[in-house]
Amino acid sequence: MRETYDEYAAAGRLRVSVSAWRWAVASGLVPAPDAGTEWSRAVVEAADAEGIRAALRGPADAWRAAERLTEALGEPLPFGRPPVTASAIGHLVRAGLLAYLGGDPATPDVHPDQVATLARRRDLPALLDRHVLLGPDQAAVRLGVRRTEWDHVVRLGWIAPVRTVDVAFKRSRGGPVTVPLYSGQDIALLPVSRPSVDWRALRALAPGRRSPLASLDPADPAEGDTVFLAAVARMAGVGRAAVVNWRRRHDDFPAPVAGTDVHPRFERSAVVAWLLAHDKIAVPAGMPSATLTARSGAAGERRFRLDDPVLELADDAAGEDRLSGWTTDTDTDADALAALTATYTGASLRRLTAPATPPLAVPGGVRVSEQYRSRLGGLRITLVWPAGLRGTADRRPRGGTVDHAVPHTAPGAQCVCVRQACGGLIPISYCAEHSRTAEPVMEWHPAGGIRCAHLTRPAPAEQPA
């Protein structure tokens, strides 16, 4: 009788499938090999065959696993995030994040419970970027640009493939096609490592427009593999003095590879690696997003998400505020948003939450001014509204603007309302002076709006005669 068993012999000895045995090992139900790469007879005979069969419950193929992880990224799929493919499951298995249970190693069978656990991880986007390789079309989607821009990125030498793979396309008559594969993390870092490029403008290029990258020369030192300290500062979002200080304090800061003592040049990839290692920059897990709740008397209320938003706030009450962002081409959000804002008075924004901006609200006048459809499957929408209506959003669930009231007479000693920096107040129902039954004539303005900001500013000092 044999004394050691490989996975096939062990599965045969217990009369379980090889997939079940592999899962039992991956989940700890069976110990790791104790005889080199095999298991001893004692370990195999001590294994619970019924428990091993029950633990598997049928493996999931790579396509179903990919669908599950794609769903976990968000519905609809965020702009700039390609769907997870079956080949990505193979990358995750090789990275040790999923257990191989059988089938083609490039598109393996995996355990559905392990896929579900991975889907619940909050760092799933970062894991995909770190371990999954992307082809050129997927890379363009991840970067949020057209394939044309991606081809220029490769031509300029800003990124290099990690490896290649031969793919036999069904309609190809010339045999397998060699496809380069790129690191998702390297792709995500491009806007950080190349801060001189207006990536937002590249994403918004209309079909047929010439790419600004087409005029760049790979031999141009400004676009090359070395950078000055000022460019390092732009990568990290700090001043040049901070980078000089890092270089002085950290012995492992990359050494100059060109330039002069006064104006040294550093290898770009080495600087990016150092900034990552010292938490000076982070790998963008995805594009930022804005959420807004719009309401129209005729169409009701609905919540929307706009990816990669741009919020432009006017300084003049007579101007207009603008919000642009991406929604998905396959989603009905664009049509719903257009319907909400199609009335003569437009829609109201009950709450708008955008990066680096306090929650805003607009009581009316919101309308869709532009729509641009990208070949990447996204739709860019621009909303506008009168700047004079904009205000701070109410924290309560009903939303809407918070209004400040400026009494025509100064509040007295009995006033218990909350005073505001603009000179106004928010009336409280039990205030003896400003309850609904006793309030004097007041002038109202939206909190956080233009009028509120103007009233908050200190009066200019008088010039001496």
Q: Which characteristics define this entry?
A:
single chain; 465 residues; alpha+beta; six-stranded antiparallel beta barrel; 17 helices; 31% helix; globular
| Strands, total number | 19
Question: Rg from C-alpha positions?
Answer: 30 Å
> Strand order within the widest sheet?
9-10-11-14-13-12
Number of alpha- plus pi-helical segments = 17
Helix content: 25-40%
**Residue fraction in strands:** 15-25%
**Low-confidence spans:** none
Largest sheet: 6 strands, antiparallel, barrel
Distance between the termini: 112 Å
Shape: globular
Helical/strand content category: alpha+beta
What number is the mean pLDDT? 87
Task: Offer a quick outline of the entry.
The protein is built from 17 helices and 19 strands. It has helices at residues 7-14, 18-27, 41-46, 49-56, 62-72, 86-94, 112-119, 124-131, 136-143, 147-155, 184-193, 199-203, 229-236, 240-249, 268-277, 333-340, 450-456; strands at 4-5, 39-40, 133-134, 163-167, 177-183, 226-227, 258-259, 264-267, 289-296, 300-312, 320-328, 347-353, 360-373, 378-386, 391-392, 403-407, 418-419, 425-426, 442-446.
Note down, in words, how this protein is organized.
31% of the residues lie in helices and 22% in strands. Strand 17 (418-419) and strand 18 (425-426) form a beta hairpin. The protein is an alpha+beta fold and 465 residues long. It has a 6-stranded antiparallel barrel. The termini are far apart. It contains 17 helices and 19 strands. The radius of gyration is 30 Å and the shape is globular.
